[in-house]
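Hello support,

Our group uses your service weekly, and this is the first time we've seen a run hang past the timeout. The protein is Cation diffusion facilitator family transporter. I'm not sure whether the cause is the sequence or the server load. Input pasted verbatim:
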Amino acid sequence: MGTNGNATVNRLALIGIPMAVFVLGLKMLAWWVTGSVALLSDALESIVNVVAAVIAWGAIHYASRPADADHPFGHHKAEYLSAVIEGVLIVVAAMLIVQEAVPKLWAPTLMEQPALGLAINFLASVINVVWATILIRAGKRHRSPALLADGHHIMSDVVTSAGVLVGLLLVLATGYAILDPVIAILVAVNILFQGWTIISSSVSGLMDHAIEGPEEAAIKQAIAENAQGSLGVHDLKTRRAGQAIFVEFHLVVPARMAVADAHEICDRLEAAIETVHQGAQVAIHVEPETEKAHGIRVKVERSKA
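Update from on-call engineer: The timeout came from a worker crash unrelated to the input. Re-ran successfully.
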């Protein structure tokens, strides 16, 4: 990812902090005017959003630092740590929600000023939908795990809020106050699932999971179309670390090929892969033809007689 991409990711992460605080304020206000434990559960999840926004900004800022002597491959994985912490915080929020909701099962109460409270909560949800969409699109575009985790978490918050609003409308329609704490407990179960999803995907990144799907296919195609002059490649390995992609493989060349010619093929392959994945870090090990090629194969150019 280029300098402009880093600046965009950092800027969005920083803006996310006051956005999260503002939405939290709206949801706390909705709870205060209604006394609804379901709205309190929604607000508690937004507290996690604030903390997560701060952590995400710190991680993205640190991850954007260039490689140094102690971290020769860069600091990209800091974003995965941010996402793991966010997932853990979501689990903590779920536990707090259950703690608040269970006592209300035995002593449920109807909401005060429900229309005002629900309107405030709806406004907070609209803001979250817009902001989550921006974060998810930017996270995909710039390959930022922290932005993606934050965006998906906020979008799950929107789903939670929608469920809370529908449930509380049922409370008003039926007069069954016990639905309020029941909804809160369902919210806790939902965000537990979201927390697990974030944690598992981030741990996969920390474990150097290989690139898959269309991205891997694009790398293989770039190699196959630009390895003319070689006899093939093998042992292709890929991994993703935050916004960075690492690619390495062995390139088999004729035994009598000059070093300069082999280097030219490597330059061409590196450029082709970097065109497919901007900023990809490519390592190529050159081998003589005595090493049998396997894996991805390329058509060997024949010299004209």
